[in-house]
Amino acid sequence: MAENENGPLFETRAVKGRFLFRLFAASMAVGIGFICYYRLRLLPVASGKLERWAWIGLFHCELWFSFYWFLTVICRWNPVYRFPHKNRLSLRYEKELPGVDIFVCTADPSAEPPSMVMNTVLSVMAYDYPPDKLNIYLSDDGASELTFYAMLEASSFSKQWLPFCKKFKVEPRSPEAYFRTAVEPDSHHPLMLKHWLLVKKQYEEAKMRVERKQIPEEIRKQHKEFREWNFVSSRNDHQTIFKMLIDGRHPNAVDAEGNVLPTLVYLAREKRPQFHHHFKAGAMNALLEFPGLDANGGPCYIGTGCFHRRDALCGKKYNETCKVDWKRLNRREVEENATVLEETCKVLASCSFEQNTQWGNEMGLKYGCPAEDIITGLSIQCRGWKSIYLNPERESFLGIAPTSLLTMLVQHKRWAEGHFQIFLSRYCSLLYGHNRIPLKLQLAYCAGNLWAANSLPTLYYVVVPCFCLLKDIPLFPKVSSPWVLPFAYVAIAHRAYSLGEFLWCGGTFQAWCNDQRMWLFKRTTSYFFALCDTILKLLGYSNPTFVITAKVADEDVSRRYEQELMEFGDSSPMFVVLASLAMLNLFSGFGAIEKLVFNADHSEVSDRFGLQILLCFLLVALNWPVYNAVFFRKDNGGMPAPVTYKSITFALLVSIVAMST
């Protein structure tokens, strides 16, 4: 026992199968080398101006794909996993654990319903951690009185929910997620069943009151904070609203069984039209992780699901004096009562507090970029702090992903735009991280920062080979030529390894196929629009905007999502691009079939254009959900008629041009 108590708090283990991955990567590198040699060797043979330029363009795309593949290999070359020993931590530091502040951010009650925010707050309040050292801060950038009301309901229901979680060993600890899947206790335990049903009823009543979207008059009279909304002009023009809903230091802040409750704070920081509020980064500052990256110098901060040391987040450089004396920190006491603290903290959340300070520059989350989390994490690592990736067997954090295709594409467009802006700024990891972080980590950051740049070679590979197929221009080696082998090996081996890895991680073949579709859709729409917007912004023709990802969908959308049907019911420019590319691939597929069926020398056609035809048919297969939405679906998730007409017209014009010249 003594040996275990004095052992390390966690251990690091290399991921199994690294040798196989490195062998696979080496074989891929050889195949890529042969492809590049083939392109260079046969470039002078290309006859005709159009053929030569198509060939050169394809070669540049393949060079880009090879370079980007190299970046991803770096990220995956030496993955490690961390395994914590929680029992040793408890034995050694049970009475000396540090205080933990948890930030929950929300910005729009329509996209992030108050009942969902209430569930999020209740789940973190129920963490298996000393409640007197747990502080939860709800940052409401939408300044919604409905969200504030939901926090009042959460503070009240937490007195029942927290002891209930301990008694029934509840997982997950979000009431909504738990009661949706949990089974009632056995009727042979009537007291336990009665308690379970009572808490479930209390939750459902609290949820119903919140979702009614009407605050009872008696509640307004009880809580003077609701008067604050009398002075709120809009969500972007209002004073600071701050309320300590539960003061964990107060003797009355206990649950139904007399246990101490965590501190719960609501904050809507001041916003004024003349002050930039810096979106989420500003909200986080007002309140003041992956296996391969871990081995390369530490995973980057992606905005959620992580813990920071306060010193690291507040701009301090790491040195040997940064070791924390938990005993000393735990002896610190704050004498002010809740009312005094509220008034003091209102000043910290005002618009003018950060003016002419280092907040948003050298302290806190960085300003000036949609991907504030990435540059914040990079700057922390460049100051000498280390980060590690922890992925325990039981999920530490659960979130909600978009359930509609357009919402997902818009979200990825925002991420890709922020990443590309970083690459073009002084925070580019190759510049900002030079001599500060390992070269492998600098290159690993580039894999994300260059998402948007992937759009152009992908679009070229989707359009030009199909266009040239209609014009009888071959762009790949003949099937009978030995040069077909490196192309076939790289394509098949890369996708086969991807599928094997996907299945090994618990996925299914159908899910993998959908993942390949999303890979194509993101690169041809989200990343392309992100690239264009970034260039326009650099030229001064575009202003940055922040689009909040909707966390809910209506019943029809949710039902189609459960049926694994993609949602195309919006007349979005992204869908015009998707449908146009899909129709061009389809018309090229028809052209390929016509060549194979009606050409006198079938073998010559299949030999010259075999790889091109396979690429075209593969794209058609990946685009099946688009064709389904255009031609067959009759529900509201089908492709809108204007999008269909535009896409068919565009694809027909391109096809006619290709076949007529």
From TrEMBL:
Pfam family of the protein (one): Cellulose_synt
Amino-acid positions noted as binding UDP-alpha-D-glucose in the UniProt annotation, renumbered to this chain: E112, D141
GO biological process: cell wall organization; cellulose biosynthetic process
One GO molecular-function entry: cellulose synthase (UDP-forming) activity
Location(s), subcellular: Golgi apparatus membrane
Transmembrane segments: 20-40, 52-71, 574-597, 609-627, 639-659
Keywords attached to this entry: Cell wall biogenesis/degradation, Glycosyltransferase, Golgi apparatus, Membrane, Transferase, Transmembrane, Transmembrane helix
Primary location group: Golgi
Membrane topology: Multi-pass membrane protein
InterPro entries the record matches: Cellulose_synth, Nucleotide-diphossugar_trans
Name under which the protein is recorded: Cellulose synthase-like protein E1 isoform X3
Source organism of this protein record: Gossypium australe
Lineage of the organism: Eukaryota, Viridiplantae, Streptophyta, Embryophyta, Tracheophyta
